[in-house]
Amino acid sequence: MVPLKIALHNSRFQALIGVGGIGSGTFFALSGNHTLGREESRSGRFLEARDYCKLHIIAHYVQTLLGSPFVTLPIGKVGDDEVGHRLLAEMRAAGLDLSHVQVCPGLQTLYAICFIYPDGTGGNLTTDQSACAQVDAGHVAQAASEFRQYAGRGIALVLPEVPLAAREKLLELGTAQRFFRVASFTSAEMWPAIEANLMGKLDLLAMNRDEAAAVVGMSAEDSYPLALVEATIHKLRDINPHLLASITAGKEGSWSWDGKALLHVPALPVEVVSTAGAGDAHISGIIVGLVAGLTLSQAQELGTLVAALSVTSPHTIHPGVEQDSLRDFASRHQAPLTEAVQSLLEED
To answer: How many domains does the chain contain in total?
Structure first.
């Protein structure tokens, strides 16, 4: 893998420490669009697509795009099973520091079977009480020395699929050591996170259209995207006046709020294979851009590019995302990139 051309020794950030789900899954394409019945037997086929959880996706892209000596340290748990050991091998191969990913005998690695109807809708069956559910504040606290090591030079990342208490502990450690704090929450978690004052402990909140709608109680489908984005930013400013935000809206593009201006980045017109993992790829690109010294709006451009390339793969981690593939992809699709973003993609 070829990382982006970034002078990491000059960067404000030297490490990312994050907590969230680590797991996998498989996709099953059902025959017939009618809803699966309680006692029905339905034919279908497994798709050649690999599914991963948010922390793994983002950590993978950040590490492979930045390369050494940047340190990406995920905190989590997997089961002592085939899935868990396979994920650890893949994460290790990507260069991740796994010193705080614990293998738990007797527990299952988080795993989901995603079923898809021919019209593209579907759902998933997810393991209950997986290893991820056992990630608690105590486990996160074991990484306190790493936070101290990168004091003032780190990014703290909190993601779904582990209890909120574990995420709150990571934000506490990150705040104490002056980390830049980034988070993503599911739609259902938005108000619990607000009520727990987690928004007040963040520097950047990344959302998709549905998650933004949950903040303001609007309908994601019926609301004009810009109106929804503006209402969400207004609400978040009431909660935390210093909070930066990124909101994605599929083919409508994405918006960034840098504390002063709301800027739009159009989506790239690409042939989509799967949108699964696109939002996580977008967050990854933003983080990489910030490490490279880009402004938030410029980092939003890089996030858009990484996400656009990611959806050309059936897997939630596109195995070919690197400097060369991003540069070629941007050229083929005539991506409207600022000079600062273009320079990151240039060959040495």
So the answer is: 1
